Amino acid sequence: MRTRMVKKNDQKDIYSNDPSWYVTDEKLQRYWLWHGLWKSKSGLQGRNISQVEHRQKLYLNGQIIKQYFKDFFLFPIWVVKFLLPTYMKGKNNVFSNIKKILTQKEFHPLRVAALSQFVFLCSLVFIGYIVVFQYSSRSLATDYNWTQSDWSAGVDLVTTADYTNNSTNWTKYYAASSTLEASSTIAFALQTTSTVETVDGDFNNGTTATTTVNSGSIGLSEVLSASSTVFSTTGTVAWVVPDGNSSIDLDVSGSQGSANTSYYTDAGGKGGRVQATYPVSAGQTVYIYVGERSPTNSKVAPFNGGGAGGSNSSAGGGASDIRVGGTALTDRIIVGGGGGGGSYDSTPAGYGGYPAGSNGTGAGGTQSSGYALGQGGSGGSRGGGGGGGYYGGYGGSYGGGGGGSSYADPNATNVTSTNNYRSGSGLVSISYFAPAAIATYYSSGIFTSDVIALELHTGFTTLDYTATLNGQTITLDIRAGNSATVDGTWTDWTTSVASGGDISSLGTHRYVQYRANLSTNDTSVTPTLDDVTINYTKYPTSGTLISTTFDSGEANIILNNISWTENLPDGTVDAQLQLRTSPDGSTWTDWMGPNGSSSTYFTDNTGGETLPESITDATDDEWIQYQVILSSTGSSTPSISSITLAMNPPAPPGAPVIGDFTGVTTSTMTLNWETVTDTVYYIISLTVPEYTSVTTTEISYTFDSNLEPNTRYYYEVVARDQYDQDSATSTQRSTYTNPNSPLAVTAIANGQTAANLTWSANSNPSDTVYQIYDNNAVLKGSTTSTSYTVTELTAGTSYTFTVRAIYNADNTSYEESDASSSITTAVPAKAVIFTLEVGGPAPSFNFVGSTESHTVEVSAIVQVGDVYKASLTLHSNDVSTGPLGAGESANVDLSGNGISDTTVTMNSVTASGANFTLSAIPQTSGATYSNPPIAKTILVESLTQDGVATTTPQSVKVVVINDGDKTTQDTKIHLRFNIDNAIQMAISQDPSFEDSSYQSYQSSTEWALPEGNGAKVVYVRFRSKEGGTITYSGVITLTDQSNDDPNALLLEKPLVIEDIPCSLEKQQPYKTKEHPGVYYITDICTKRAFSNTDMYFSYFTSWDDVHTTSISSLGAIPDDTVEPFMTMRLLTIDDRTTLTEGALIKTFDTPKVYIIQDNQRHWIPNEATFNTYHYKWTNILIVEDELLHAFDVGSDVE
Q1: How the protein sits in the membrane (predicted)?
Q2: pLDDT tens-digit map of 1130-1147
């Protein structure tokens, strides 16, 4: 972008790099002006400027600040304008414009202003929170209350209560409904009630079985004798059902059609028969109709529906039927159909029957059609008449008439029908029971009442009844349920309940039914049940209690709320409370609820409802009274066990003012504040463990323990008065404790110009700043760590060091340690040893005889498999080594002349640092030492991304001590070398090799270590025939010696599997309750999943071995990176001799498993093959790549 500085009011275009989006409005120039001012200032920054330019720079600073504040306060208006099409030309899409503002360099000032205002607003919100929530006045206490939890003293119309004497112990009340009981609670009084059955109207809804309801009593029914009446005379008879009959048996036959002998002889169709049982009641009238048969050759229509005959033909037979409830055809309950009349011609007449009469030449009647309802049709020419029936048959023509249909009402039972049955006229027979001349009663009978609906209640009590036994027996049973009809949810019968007997086992069911069992030993008499009373209890449905008047003692008291403790079982509703107040105890307001009217009530027992203004206005409300209104359905009672009127007391105390801190030490201090009037005690809040909050009645408090040194503690104080009201919180104050003096300062020389220092923090916190001074009181550096590498020391010079812990309170005062023991830095030599942390300082060094000074630092540490390797960077001529592991070396050129002049030998590497030796390679004028010996390599097999097998060389460890042992108890050790192109070698414990000389190269030799416990570095310098040299080292730890070697190498403690902590037991299986998966806990505290049962049982013998733990505990164990169930034994190239024939091996980073046979590795290609040979997953050993590739590749296992 190109921008020009412009004068005020000098409008110029400001161009953008995007030609499709540009701005010309002068309102935007203030942003480019700010940007230009900033760029101009930047141009003056960082170089020598003249006095005039200096004044210009000051002017620019002022203008930048001025423009910034303009942008800050006005940017919300401008940013909206920027998004409007009238202010932005070109692409006016709002989203595109927003993107431009967010990304274009020209709008950087706008973005700065927006961010500043956002931070400003957040700051305002934060400050508002502190002011409102941290330093605002505390809410008024709610313990200035009148609480009543006992009403056992009863009604008192005279005595009043007051706050001073009766705020919690008042036990009286002014009045209460008779339905209430007031003692430790206010609740309904339990009432006893009953339901009674004593008249016929009560009993008639029940069910009788050989029992009878008569004259308000229940007795046994009389025994009736079987009887029958036959009606054979044609016509109609009214018959009344005798007592004791609830059904009668009916036998009804229709008459035969009239015979005809005019030419052919036709006897006429026979009538149909129907038999059935029909329900009736004693005293009911039944109408009987007996059908008529006309004389032979008579064509006159007979009684009850037979059709008239045609010329030379006879009439159809009349039907027989019984009618109930009336005499209309529609009142018939049973019908026997009549037969058709005979005819002059040969076609015979049809008979009566069910469901239809048969056909003559006229069709028979059916259940839904025929000649007519109850009437047969007249015959045609030489045709017989149709028979009567439910529906009559049709008259015939030149043949007999059709038969009528028989019928039975749907309420009839045991229905049978016989077609073509009756000859002659119709016949009706009724069978029934009739009373004996001398009354005889059944020996037993049962009466079951109807289901009796009760109101909601609390439970049954007793069953009472009155009986006239006449020397006989009556027992009662009873049951209950909650449905209006008896179903499977009802109780079983409670049997043989005596009068006055307990029936409480029926519970609180809403519906009840009883059963009376009557029996007699003298059938000439019957016992009678005269009345039944079922007793139960219930609660009243409403009641009111009015409290005693309460004098608050404050003319301007303000009521906060009314709350109460209630119990509302099922069947109750919320308690309702109202209040009223008085200025003098005699003139009262109306009772009122939340809105101030008498029609509303307080129902929130937690006090959440707002009180009306008339009793919260601090005017004329000194006297207070409440009333309680309870309601219930009757099945249970609400109860109130306490009622509290909460009121505002006087104003709380003022906020305390914290003064100075006294008695400050490393672990103690005293907090002081000014006295606050009307205070009972003070509450101190602070950030001290076990002292979150303390109280005292004094105006100071000493914290004499649990304080950490050099730590800042914050304090706040609140005053509390006799009403448990808290003041506003004091202004927060803070101070620091003093630091402790550092302890145990240890110094170790680190090369020629550096020393490594460590010390104990002595409980000082991690943010404590430590300053390091030498014995000349020269500040050498500062750190918050407890270790430091001092640099810029003088070679061959003695030093002691002290460490000062700086006061966090003022960043100046200090507590100083004792001086360290004296150390002497190394003098320039042919070799120098360093121990440095990664990313730490870069100390200087120079070799003896050289004027060149160099620096070295550990620039990076990487982990290759389980081995750490360090990269070094050396300066003057910048040189970087590649990653070197312990025992690896490299020659580098520090002078920059193309000839290697320094050997880097890595002695040990940890995750945080490295110990290494720098050795000078001898240089002779005019001579070139080239082609140094090199480490032996092995070929490592791998696959490319395309799946092509390839091999790459990989170096092996050059100096191997005691076949790879890490420790020894013997000073005599065995050295083995893996190097090519060496003809001579020199061995020394001194990296300068001052005490050794070259000897002929041997692949192995013996060496004696110096005495003393510690890690010993053995240096070996190899030389080629061309004169090139390189130095390698090996490290072994000598133990069990009588003394320690002060010159031993300091190594980080190696990781031992047994030392790895684990929250679950190693080498054990675990699962959770929520998931069936089973995991194995390895020796390095990782978990591996069992993928099948075969794997599990190759490891354990029973599922009982599995431990159950929580999801969180198992989840805290990291997943193992090794394929499931391979024993964690990491073997290196030094362990090759330990691998026996048949060993199973694999590496960390590939799933392939091999078996060692004939000194070759053979791949086991799949799990099926693995299981076929009964290999065990637990026997697999984990090896380094170097060890794997030491074995030639053999054929796959099949």
Answers
A1: Single-pass type I membrane protein
A2: 677 777 777 778 888 887
